[in-house]
Amino acid sequence: MRLEFKILKKINKELGSFEISGDDKGLSFRFGYWSEINMDTLQKILPYGWVIDEELVDDDDDCGRLYCYNIRKDVFDYEADLEAQDYDIWGNEKI
């Protein structure tokens, strides 16, 4: 699972500063001080096949709502898209 640096630069330009952490399930983005962002904007920046899950980390009277955004490659969507196409991944027409 990789993101090119130019994608990270575009995310920073469009949505502001962020921190990234990750594990074997994907990457987690935290914008500003756990700010809520426009998920459609982030989805348009990410390459095809990436899925975003908004996570409400906490909601209290002192800090308000705290959000992070978990992103991962969705292998299953990619395979479903291949099945829907008339050609396989090598360009051969399906029979």
Summarize the structure.
The chain has one domain. Strand 3 (about 50-60) and strand 4 form a beta hairpin. The chain is built from three helices and four strands.
Please report the number of helical segments: 3
Q: What fraction, in percent, of the residue positions are helical? A: 25-40%
Record the strand order, biggest sheet: 1-2-4-3
Mean pLDDT score = 84
Order of helices and strands: HEEHEEH
Got a strand count? 4
Number of domains: 1
N-to-C terminal Cα separation, in Å? 32 Å
* Largest sheet geometry: 4 strands, antiparallel
In terms of DSSP E residues, the strand content is 25-35%
The poorly predicted ranges are none
Quickly give the structural class.
alpha+beta
General shape: elongated
Kindly provide the radius of gyration, computed on alpha-carbon positions and rounded to a whole number of angstroms.
Answer: 17 Å
Describe the fold and architecture.
- The structure is a single chain.
- With 95 residues, the chain is an alpha+beta fold.
- It has one domain (5-84).
- Helices cover 29% and strands 35% of the residues.
- The chain has three helices and four strands, in the order H-E-E-H-E-E-H.
- The protein has helices spanning 5-15, 39-45, 75-84, and strands at residues 18-23, 26-31, 50-60, 64-73.
- It has a four-stranded antiparallel sheet with strand order 1-2-4-3, with helices on one face.
- A hairpin with a 3-residue loop joins strand 3 and strand 4.
- The longest helix is centred in the N-terminal third of the chain and has 11 residues, at 5-15.
- It is elongated.
- The two termini are 32 Å apart.
- The mean pLDDT is 84.
